[in-house]
Design brief:
single chain, Jelly Rolls, 6% helix, globular, binds 5-phospho-D-arabinohydroxamic acid, binds zinc ion
Length: 187
């Protein structure tokens, strides 16, 4: 940086989709084949085309993972669909530093944010365009797409939060979001 220099931003957000572009944006994808044991009906998952895209994440991670005081920013897009009667959803995780919080917000489409505390109490918040969700410390979080179009949501979290997927891989959430008579229902 030079003294008195005026620059353009190096990253941009498409305000309709919250797609990220510019320097250092990373992208990751999860297919149905990569989501073994995430859904309740493993037989139904195995019968599907394993290359089916379930969700992708774009993120700007400007600080090294673990840095105290840095911030991360991401956009997740979950495709519409179900495995058996369970909606396409993210793997879900606690943060590795358990006292680190996060914001999620709905951008496009309809979904449900599933939240579970350390006592395995699970509840959910409806995600719609403009909904803002504060995910407090020690709360596992996962999002399901309950609509017929891709669900876009934004996220911002501390760079020292980390991801603990093991707990959810092992024990899951204590409830699943399934379609019952056409209605998203926690069971
Ligand atoms: C998000 C999530 C993203 C994908 O950026 O990582 O939505 O979900 P999974 O990581 O559970 O597959 C976030 O919560 N970061 O902390
Ligand atoms: Zn998180």
């Amino acid at each position: 940086m030079k003294q008195l220099e005026i620059k353009s931003a190096q990253q941009a957000i498409d305000l309709k989709t919250w797609a990220l572009s510019g320097e250092g944006i990373i992208e990751s994808k999860r297919t149905i084949g990569q989501l073994a044991n995430v859904f309740g009906d493993e037989q139904a998952r195995k019968k599907m085309n394993q290359d089916t895209l379930a969700y992708n994440v774009q993120a700007h991670l400007p600080a090294k993972e673990g840095t105290l005081g840095g911030l991360y920013f991401g956009t997740t897009i979950i495709q519409p669909g179900k495995v058996g009667n369970e909606y396409f959803m993210t793997r879900g995780h606690f943060h590795a530093s358990s006292d680190r919080a996060e914001y999620y917000w709905g951008v496009k489409g309809e979904g449900m944010l599933l939240l579970m505390d350390k006592n395995r109490i699970t509840w959910a918040e409806k995600m719609i365009p403009g909904s803002l969700h504060y995910i407090g410390a020690d709360i596992a979080h996962r999002v399901a797409n309950t609509g017929n179009e891709p669900l876009h949501f934004g996220a911002a979290w501390p760079s020292d939060a980390g991801h603990n997927y093991d707990e959810i891989d092992k024990n899951g959430f204590s409830a699943r979001l399934v379609e019952v008579d056409g209605v998203p229902t926690l069971v």
